[in-house]
Design brief:
single chain; mainly alpha; three-stranded antiparallel beta sheet; flat
Amino acid sequence: MTSFSKLPRNYGNKNPNNKSVFATDAIEAVGGTGLNTAQARADYIKNNAARVSAPVPANKGTAMDAQCSGQQYPANFDYINQYIMSYYVASSSFIGYYAMSVISQHWLVMKGCSSAAKDAMKKGYELTKNDGEALDKKQVRALAKLDKKYKLNHNIIEGETFNNVFGIRHILYKHTDPNFDYEKPFNPDSFKGGKYAGMAQIDPYWVTPELNDLDITDPTSIGYYEPTFWLVNGKRYHKSHFVILIGEPVSDYLKPTYRYGGIGMAQKVYERVYAAERTANEIPQLAMTKRLGVRKTDLAKAQANKTQFMQNLNVMNEYRDNFGVQVVGLNEDITQLETSLADLDDSMWANYHLVASIFGRPVSKLFGTGHGGLGTGDTDDDYDISMLESLQSGNLEDIAYAHYERLMPSEYGEEMDLDIAWNPLKVMSDKEMAEVNKLKADTDTALVATGGVDGVDVRDRLIGDKQSGYSGIEMFDIEEETEGGTPKDNDVDPEEKESGEE
């Protein structure tokens, strides 16, 4: 177990004898009292991990508290399975960054940690100005080249992947000056004149948190238990020079144990992956050993001449396969027991479903299989897209915004005035698009018939709708068409007009 080395032993406990679940007192008890490990662990959990007595009502015998005043009510709290509690505490606590690195080598763990970020970035995004105006094509191409130069997409995917592995990821936005003072908070002006060097990503093993007084003394302060500085290779960096991704959050009390990060996917999923892979590995073994032959034998004679008995078994095994012939005596009786493999794949996939649930991905996305499960009106894609959109507007967008906050002053000498608009993750097929446009056309027809809009309004809508198929045609300029008279006058031939006047 990991102890809170930076906190007093009785931090947060009113009763000094009531130790933390995650302290090392159980280990100390083993060395100090001579108890064996199992007994010390059981005593420790019984005394600390669960409340073993019911709360005593302030006024006994009043209202429903009268039902709780006997011995039966507190007795319900007295028993706890020590082994289950010990296993739960051990398997759910911080396992260390080295263990997470080793676990993430497994193909399924790494795929689960990286697949969401890859899918979220697959359709990309478009940059617009803060006022909503679109950038011209020249600006878009220039920014796209710079993004590729600084490997923005690669850094976004890598950052979220290893945030899932470790539960924390530091992305440092570097200055070209090797002597740049990173202890001062981030200032966009300091990156003007081509001073932006790109992004560097740092594993948590190389990063040490450094907290100031407010970070650890005032629970009401904004950013409580969030380090103001981080030490990397003996150098102090203010937190504003990082984008720090955090995994599943933990309580303030556990933050020192997790190095002020969160719970990594590798820690949450390793037990379930192990169970799923063990089950999958059992299938070929069961397929090869599903048939068990039973041969009646005089056990007394077999035991009397054990050597000869073993030789006979070996001879029998040489013939015993799917292509050989089993020779038996006229009076011998042989039966065969066959293990049923029915629903074995369901048992295997049940474990993999649990793995996919921890990763928050549908099994169809994680394994490339077909959709499964009970129908709820929504498909796997609907659930998945909702999760990916949350990821886009969270961690992925944070990395991109911090990049542009430094890129724009560096390359253009101005503060960032860009906004990110993510492209839709779900793209309709040609048939689906045609059906949608047909519905829009029917709506336009009805509105024109009622006088709500006219043909010019419909044309403008088609041009503004990128999915209409007509977004590239030129806008209708009414003033140009009506110059020198009304549209009705312009449609009349001058000679016909004169003859009509006559």
